């Protein structure tokens, strides 16, 4: 799915660090100054491992980092509610990025080839509030990093730490300003491998692929702080894990990614890669997980996806779809995906929309919850990163 | 209108004189402008560099001699969730093969930078960040700096730091968001913090942590929270404190330069005054006639002043142009001195600073008008008939002489009194000095009279009538000769005063070095750097060398400790008792101080430190140590001419105990009995192996130190020469004008039968006499100035006492200078007279 994430990551890392460096008199990175192709140079750097064939996943080891690949992420999202039924959404994401292959021995403890970026967003549905924050750090000196068994990934005081091997459980902690979360996630399902046994192809060239697995349901319990108020919450989270050394084909404008947990026990993941001409890339794909945990890949031809309206960002004028009609006729699925709050745009160096959504049926009955990510809608056209 | 034309005519008819006057003003203004430009440029470069590096930081956490532990940064950022902070590892680096280029290496964590600094290359391609972090020893330079060094992105070049000479890669260029930042960036070499640690060898340590705290209570709360985290030797300083204290360091130095440049302007003013006096005298008849036909005083006054203004403007404009040119060179000298004495500052371009030009311009014009006012008032104040008569003027100046002497006495007394008020500081000392100069200048005409009278029989005996005529000529034209001589005296005495001061200082330093440097051989790191920035020697080498058989060794370490009151330089030394006993003390004695000093319980402060901090034997100094702030008793005050900020000296035992820094940056070796210096040097070299160190003999080190001394006074020497040139031009123009003005009188002499040679004799005799008188009269004033410079100005500026030393060569030089100028001044009028037929000359004037 988020194949452009690679680019996003490079661009955002560089742009984020440098935009802020030059921020005093510069409004942002100069338009066109950080084009995607410039950031990636078009060709992946040699020296990194690539996802060429399906691999034998081993857990819990594969929950940990794979530094031989250029990029990797741990993507936690979830819909939560307190005992009074007040609804919340959260996103806590850690991105790892190798600046150069290998890790040559150096004497300074600051030296590293790995950098981390993290995004943290909270949605207070009833309070109609959304906040987002980002952080960057080098993976050195205990400022950021990731370890395998048990899993630990952190950027300063934002972290995801494994607390139990079976069922696999993880504790998330993050705080920024008056927003904070401290959640315990317990997987309610085994790992789901997306694509071809976990190999998610992004293009026709061999190696232009990623390793991609999800845990669509993690029972979640803990505390949230929003605007200084603390809430005891419970709900369901979704974990997406992906690592790759992908190249860029250059004609994508962005993508729309859906992670939906249905009340009937099924989970649906689907990503649509949008080309610059607005059409969906043939490599758009998804996974449908049955209530028993069995997974079935979905291709573009099986899925119909139409925006139901448009929302204009008051922050930057970007026009995002205000909702989607998603149907998988072969599976008897016909859904409306409706944001729980229209403004869930992350005001980070790289801007995108990611937020909690309600899943509704034809008659408006609520069929489930989920998270929706939409990128590439920034003014100025097709460029993903500016 | 007629007046204006008369004035113009006057200029055209005496082009040489006009040129010389304009030149005099120009030189005076040029010197002031150039010095101001140099001062401002150096100061500005430093300030901007400091501000660029500090960015938006409101506070800095700085460590002891070895910096801060890097874990502190993580504790603050992650442990305490205070994220508006950034680590910095910085050091001075030299670009190899370019001895003049010193840059500040700044190691940063680009990811922590956002709240702090506005500079950065905005990395036109995203690879630069990756390169900076992943390729060790990749650095960024400002585009201008790279151009100056002839480097392109991707080039490798060598730098020198920490005793090594590593090769670095120019990975990219720093692009400044604005002009000011661009200037600041020019003295920086930015690198990733990991590379900075590796290059400087300071693994695990940070130079400082920059913080951006909110204002008010919120900031104070965070400060209170952070304070307990700091290791004892760390200090929390508000931003700007460091830059401010460094700026303060050079204040005295800059003030002295400005004062010296003003001296050149004062000399220039005398010159203008003199010129105006002549231009008035020459036209006294015209002025008298105009006044007689009804032109008002005011009109005449305005006319004369506007004439002065024209001269002043022309001179000032030329002076500003010349000053801007000279400023380039002076800036180089000033920054070199600041680099030698104070801190690294790199100036790549000398911009024309409007305020400097305005200052120089105003000063030039106002000085001209001020100097022109008295003669103009005199010419317009007298009744028309009196103005017509020249004898009136001469009679009046003789009549006024007693008043001048009384005024001189009062001004001199006032000068002495001002000098005694210590509270008035450096400015007061210069005010007093200027009062002495002016008072003395008022005495000069009387002095000339006395000398001319005394010399008349001598000249008569030597040259007969011609000699007597020359002596008489000086006396009867006192209204002009007096002023010319006074200008000459002021100019020449200034060169004597500064000369004696520098000579005394040099001698004092030389003899101090003898008591201070006692070892036979000294070993330091091979990196070209002064004592304050010397990197430590490799510990293994120190270990090897400290057990050298047949030799005593001393080890030293010089570090700068940051304190809230500014940086304190600490010199930690382990020296043999015999060496310590040879140190010269101002307060206390080495014998009494030795015991507590060697134990590390007490310390010594240098004379400037004692002066600056009003600290004496028995007082206490508080220093930030590893065990927290610690107060040490002062066991004595010793003479030291190495730093005008003053140093604190402590034994190595104490330093190790309180700072736990085993670093050694200098070693001294004393040959034991029966060991020659060469043998000792061989032994040392054998143990040095491949380490890059420098072994110098006592004599060489002394020579080097004196060479640095000379270098730092190069700027003073240049100013002295410039003042001399102004003086020379002044004398030349004054005496020449005097003689030209006498053309008719000389023609009469020719008509009476004197040969051109004899007229030349009269003219030259007269100018030489004035030159001689002025030369001789400048000697006491010169010595007086030297004494004031040594005992008042220098003491208040730098806290140094020095032994006055009078080099007779300087006095002879001064007299010769005035004689040479006088002699040259006589040539042109004599030639002119010789060429003209007496009849023509008689008709021509008046």
Automatic annotation (TrEMBL), chain A:
Domain AttH: 71-245
Endpoints of the signal sequence: none
Alphabetized Pfam families for the sequence: CrtC (PF07143), Lipocalin_9 (PF17186)
Protein name listed in UniProt: Carotenoid 1,2-hydratase
Organism (species): Geomonas silvestris
From TrEMBL, chain B:
Protein's GO biological process: lipoprotein localization to outer membrane
Similarity field: Belongs to the ABC-4 integral membrane protein family. LolC/E subfamily.
Domain called MacB-like periplasmic core: residue spans: 19-227, 481-686
Keyword Zinc-finger assigned: no
Record's subcellular location: Cell membrane
Protein name: ABC transporter permease
Membrane topology, as annotated: Multi-pass membrane protein
PANTHER family: LIPOPROTEIN-RELEASING SYSTEM TRANSMEMBRANE PROTEIN LOLE (PTHR30489:SF0)
Alphabetical keyword list: Cell membrane, Membrane, Transmembrane, Transmembrane helix
GO (cellular component) term, any one: plasma membrane protein complex
Record field: transmembrane: 257-281, 301-322, 400-419, 425-451, 484-509, 718-740, 768-798, 810-828
ABC3 transporter permease C-terminal domain: residues covered: 260-384, 721-838
Superkingdom of source: Bacteria
């Amino acid at each position: 799915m988020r194949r452009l994430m690679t680019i996003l990551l490079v661009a955002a890392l560089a742009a984020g660090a440098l935009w802020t460096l030059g921020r005093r008199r510069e409004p942002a990175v100069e338009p066109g100054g950080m084009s995607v192709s410039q950031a990636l140079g078009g060709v992946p750097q040699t020296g990194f491992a690539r996802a060429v064939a399906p691999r034998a996943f081993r857990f819990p080891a594969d929950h940990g980092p794979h530094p031989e690949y250029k990029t990797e992420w741990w993507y936690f999202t979830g819909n939560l509610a307190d005992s009074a039924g007040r609804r919340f959404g959260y996103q806590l994401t850690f991105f790892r990025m190798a600046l150069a292959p290998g890790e040559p021995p150096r004497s300074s403890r600051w030296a590293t080839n790995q950098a981390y970026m993290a995004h943290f967003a909270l949605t207070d549905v009833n309070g109609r509030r959304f906040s987002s924050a980002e952080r960057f750090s080098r993976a050195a000196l205990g400022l950021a990093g990731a370890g395998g068994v048990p899993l630990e990934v952190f950027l300063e005081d934002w972290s995801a730490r494994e607390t139990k091997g079976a069922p696999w459980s993880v504790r998330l902690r993050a705080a920024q300003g008056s927003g904070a979360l401290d959640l315990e996630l317990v997987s309610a399902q085994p790992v789901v491998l997306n694509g071809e046994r976990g190999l998610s192809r992004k293009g026709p060239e061999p190696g232009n692929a990623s390793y991609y697995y999800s845990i669509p349901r993690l029972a979640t319990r803990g505390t949230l702080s929003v605007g200084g108020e603390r809430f005891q919450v419970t709900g369901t989270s979704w974990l997406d894990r992906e690592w790759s050394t992908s190249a860029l084909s250059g004609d994508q404008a962005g993508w729309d990614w859906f992670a939906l947990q249905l009340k009937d026990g099924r989970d649906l993941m689907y990503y649509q890669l949008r080309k610059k001409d607005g059409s969906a890339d043939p490599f758009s794909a998804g996974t449908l997980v049955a209530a028993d945990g069995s997974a079935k890949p979905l291709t573009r031809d099986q899925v119909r996806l139409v925006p139901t309206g448009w929302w204009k960002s008051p922050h930057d004028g970007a026009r995002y779809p205000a909702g989607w009609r998603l149907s998988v006729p072969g599976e008897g699925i016909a859904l409306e995906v409706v944001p729980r709050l229209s403004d869930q745009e992350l005001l980070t160096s790289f801007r995108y929309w990611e937020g909690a959504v309600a899943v509704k049926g034809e008659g408006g009955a609520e069929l489930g919850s989920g998270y929706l990510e939409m990128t590439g809608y920034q003014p100025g056209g097709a460029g993903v990163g500016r | 209108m007629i007046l204006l034309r008369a004035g113009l005519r006057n200029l055209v008819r005496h082009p040489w004189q006009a040129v010389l006057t304009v030149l005099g003003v120009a030189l005076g203004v040029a010197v002031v402008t150039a010095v101001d430009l140099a001062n401002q440029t150096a100061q500005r470069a430093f300030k901007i560099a400091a501000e660029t590096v500090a960015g938006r930081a409101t506070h800095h956490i700085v460590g002891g001699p070895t910096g801060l532990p890097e874990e502190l940064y993580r504790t603050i950022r992650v442990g305490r969730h205070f994220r508006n902070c950034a680590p910095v590892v910085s050091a001075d680096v030299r670009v190899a093969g370019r001895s003049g280029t010193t840059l500040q290496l700044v190691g940063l964590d680009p990811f922590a930078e956002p709240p702090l600094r506005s500079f950065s290359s905005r990395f036109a391609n995203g690879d630069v960040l990756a390169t900076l972090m992943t390729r060790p020893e990749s650095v960024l330079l400002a585009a201008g700096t790279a151009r100056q060094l002839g480097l392109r992105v991707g080039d490798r070049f060598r730098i020198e730091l920490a005793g090594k000479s590593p090769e670095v890669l120019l990975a990219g260029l720093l692009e400044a968001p604005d002009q000011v930042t661009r200037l600041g960036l020019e003295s920086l070499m930015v690198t990733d913090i990991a590379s900075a640690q590796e290059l400087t060898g300071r693994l695990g340590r940070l130079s400082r942590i920059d913080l951006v705290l909110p204002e008010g209570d919120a900031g104070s709360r965070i400060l209170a929270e952070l304070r307990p985290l700091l290791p004892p030797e760390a200090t929390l300083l508000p931003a700007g404190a460091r830059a401010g204290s460094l700026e303060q360091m050079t204040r005295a130095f800059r003030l002295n330069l400005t004062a010296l440049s003003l001296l050149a302007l004062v000399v220039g003013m005398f010159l203008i005054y003199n010129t105006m006096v002549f231009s008035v005298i020459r036209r006294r008849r015209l002025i008298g006639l105009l006044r007689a036909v009804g032109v008002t005083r005011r009109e005449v006054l305005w006319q004369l002043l506007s004439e002065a203004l024209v001269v002043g403007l022309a001179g000032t404009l030329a002076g500003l142009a010349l000053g801007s040119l000279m400023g380039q060179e002076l800036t180089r000298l000033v920054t070199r001195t600041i680099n030698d004495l104070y801190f690294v500052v790199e100036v790549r371009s000398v911009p024309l600073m409007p305020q400097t030009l305005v200052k120089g311009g105003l000063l030039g014009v106002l000085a001209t008008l001020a100097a022109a006012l008295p003669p103009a008032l005199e010419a317009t104040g007298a009744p028309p008939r009196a103005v017509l008569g020249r004898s009136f003027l001469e009679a009046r100046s003789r009549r006024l002489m007693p008043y001048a002497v009384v005024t001189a006495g009062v001004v001199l007394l006032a000068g002495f009194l001002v000098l005694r008020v210590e509270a008035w500081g450096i400015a007061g000392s210069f005010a007093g000095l200027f009062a002495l100069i002016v008072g003395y200048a008022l005495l000069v005409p009387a002095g000339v009279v006395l000398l001319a009278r005394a010399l008349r029989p001598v000249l008569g005996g030597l040259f007969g009538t011609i000699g007597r005529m020359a002596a008489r000529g000086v006396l009867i034209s006192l209204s002009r000769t007096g002023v010319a001589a006074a200008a000459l005296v002021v100019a020449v005495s200034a060169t004597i005063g500064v000369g004696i001061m520098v000579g005394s200082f040099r001698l004092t330093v030389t003899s101090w070095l003898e008591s201070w440097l006692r070892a036979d051989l000294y070993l330091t790191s091979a990196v070209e750097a002064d004592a304050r920035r010397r990197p430590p020697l490799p510990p293994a080498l120190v270990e090897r060398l400290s057990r050298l058989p047949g030799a005593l060794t001393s080890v030293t370490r010089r570090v700068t400790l940051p304190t809230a009151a500014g940086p304190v330089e600490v010199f930690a030394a382990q020296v043999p008792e015999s060496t310590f006993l040879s140190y010269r003390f101002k307060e206390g004695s080495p014998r009494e101080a030795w015991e507590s000093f060697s134990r590390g319980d007490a310390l010594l402060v240098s004379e400037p430190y004692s002066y600056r901090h009003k600290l004496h034997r028995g007082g206490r100094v508080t220093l930030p140590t590893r065990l927290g702030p610690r107060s040490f008793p002062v066991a004595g005050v010793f003479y030291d001419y190495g730093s005008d900020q003053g140093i604190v000296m402590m034994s190595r035992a104490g330093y190790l105990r309180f700072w736990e820094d085993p670093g050694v940056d200098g070693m001294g070796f004393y040959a034991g009995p029966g060991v020659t210096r060469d043998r000792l040097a061989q032994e040392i070299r054998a143990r040095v192996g491949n380490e890059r160190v420098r072994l110098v003999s006592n004599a060489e080190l002394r020579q080097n130190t004196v060479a640095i001394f000379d270098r730092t006074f190069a700027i003073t020497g240049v100013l002295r020469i410039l003042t001399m040139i102004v003086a020379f031009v002044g004398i030349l123009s004054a005496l020449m004008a005097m003689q030209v003005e006498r053309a008719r009188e000389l023609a009469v002499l020719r008509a009476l039968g004197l040969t051109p040679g004899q007229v030349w004799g009269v003219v030259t005799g007269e100018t030489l006499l004035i030159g001689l008188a002025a030369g001789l009269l400048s000697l006491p004033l010169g010595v007086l100035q030297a004494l004031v410079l040594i005992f008042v100005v220098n003491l208040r500026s730098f806290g140094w006492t020095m032994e006055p030393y009078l080099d007779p060569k300087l006095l002879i030089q001064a007299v010769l200078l005035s004689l040479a100028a006088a002699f040259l001044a006589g040539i042109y009028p004599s030639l002119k007279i010789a060429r003209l037929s007496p009849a023509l000359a008689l008709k021509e004037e008046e």
